[in-house]
Amino acid sequence: MKSKTLFDKIWDSHIVRSIEAGPDVLYIDRHYIHEVTSPQAFNGLKERGIPVFRPGKTIATADHNIPTKNQHLPISDQLSRNQVERLSENCQKYGIELFGLNHPKNGIVHVIGPELGYTLPGMTIVCGDSHTSTHGAFGTIAFGIGTSEVEMVLATQCILQPKPKKMRISLDGKLHKGVTSKDIIMYIISEISASGATGYFVEYCGSVIRSLSMEARMTICNMSIEMGARGGLIAPDETTFDYLRKLPSIPGIYNIKSSVNEWKKLKSDTDAIFDNELKFDAGLIKPMITYGTNPGMGMAIDASIPLSDEKGNNKATSSYLKSLDYMGFKPGMKLLGHPIDYVFIGSCTNGRIEDFRAFAQIIRGRKKANNITALIVPGSKKVEEQMVAEGLVEVYKNAGFEVRQPGCSSCLAMNEDKIPQGKYSVSTSNRNFEGRQGPGSRTLLASPLTAAAAAITGRLTDPREFITEEKKVKN
Questions:
Q1: pTM of this structure
Q2: What domains appear along the chain, each with residue ranges and CATH number?
């Protein structure tokens, strides 16, 4: 029998039909929807008189547009309120489970899926959101889809999809203090560029990946899309199974032991062939920061901005210089000590409990800098409850921080949590495009540790200044 990669095994077992010289008809196990990309899809069903084929396979939440303050009040923004109301109406009409605003299980779609047990190894998962790749941390094929494809999945529980190429990224060695999963993926993207994995589905492996928690693995898979990949996945192992065993319940799973025995088979064969293989030494990674307007423009926080946008090229392109000009930076500039204005911790990238523990590790016993406006936003109601139960909210308050209510918040300018024009934001989210956090805003992507160091000092600071080797975090 031909050897297969993990990706092949999952993909091939979900093919309903292969179209000659065309895409595959792929069955979808789990469909996540939210208020932004679903209204048009539901309208399409209504216009054609088509029902939702398998409503039990779709899970909905409100996250992108919702406010993170006073969630008990009506949403003030008319467009946002309309989208949230349409989601509620459509879910009620078609019998879809909704964790809407103020629901005790509400949260960012890519946070609540795993924590509620809806994301399981071996699944195919889609959502009208590019960071659906987050769920690949559990050994799934998970990817974002467009609105027309959302309608297709609602109507048929299938999707037409060409099979991507396969890339394996191996990470071995020893992580240094202050280096988190966010730094790992930012480093990889900076090395291969924001388009370096275009056309591929990436499997991450190696001793470093195996040592990471599930939260950390989700962070890495979340940002696979930022290097052009269709998605990323990690083979399930005992870390995965322990995470799932600890969940209060797993919908549709009645015998966890039997399920684990099946999930253990989900791994690439020893001699499986990938279309591309990359290897990285974890010992070369330092805390990272971005300096430009795409996630590939990243560097070690103590480094200088490259003189050009291409390795081995001494001349900067006009687009590279335009990006730096937008950020107010110049080639060769060091960013350590640069004043900042905002700090945001949250999003589907770094809005889980481990991220807030890491943030608290640095700010505990210290005070927020006076020039900093901080947006501390848990990724879900469950994370919010954990923060309270563990005393993290009290730690934040004592340091002068305000903890907000769950939502996508300042990851994107679809809600009230916008960064003003010209202001600098150290953000634990996944994108630093022009205007991503608000018109004219300047975003520097970083880990929760680097964000915490900036929040205390009011400027870009190496988080290793605040960390002893004994306190090294595993996220």
A1: 0.96
A2: 6-277 (3.30.499.10), 289-471 (3.30.499.10)
